[in-house]
Specification:
Helices cover 46% and strands 13% of the residues. The chain has helices spanning 8-16, 23-30, 40-51, 61-67, 77-85, 93-105, and strands spanning 3-6, 35-39, 71-73, 109-110, 123-124. It has a 5-stranded parallel β-sheet. The protein has 125 residues and is of the alpha/beta class. Helix 5 packs across helix 6 (93-105). It has one domain (3-124): 5'-nuclease (Rossmann fold, 3-Layer(aba) Sandwich). It is globular.
């Protein structure tokens, strides 16, 4: 059994438009044996974007996440400790937090963002 952390675009596409995922990302997310994690930071980022009108999701989107069997990763002090030590490669604070969580939890990040792959983490797309 392998574990993976979804970034925001991977989560959105996995829930609402799986055809936009790469073949590898789709395979990973679709395999029942894999543990798929979603960060509370991702839900926070999405909630902000929905509130200010920069993101539109289908009704019930957030409720579907648990129904799909995805597990939540809460933000811990250890994540912030790693976050503070990251080089400033990526300017998006939410993506930087996902990188920190990936490092701290030793979980590959499923992402289409080429900037996150510049950190020393395992990424999949």
């Amino acid at each position: 059994m392998a574990s993976y952390l979804l970034d925001t675009c991977a989560l959105i596409w996995a829930v609402s438009d799986p055809g936009k995922l790469s073949k590898e990302a789709y395979r990973i997310i679709d395999e029942d044996e894999n543990r798929i994690f979603v960060s509370h930071a991702t839900l926070w980022e999405m909630s902000i974007k929905v509130t200010i009108g920069k993101l539109i999701v289908k009704k019930g989107f957030f409720e579907q996440i648990g129904d799909l069997g995805y597990e939540m990763i809460a933000t811990k002090e250890a994540h912030f400790s790693v976050y503070r030590k990251l080089p400033l490669i990526h300017r998006d604070p939410f993506d930087r937090l996902l990188v920190a969580q990936s490092l701290c939890e030793k979980i590959p990040l499923v992402t289409c963002d080429p900037e996150t792959s510049k950190y020393r983490i395992e990424t999949v797309w």
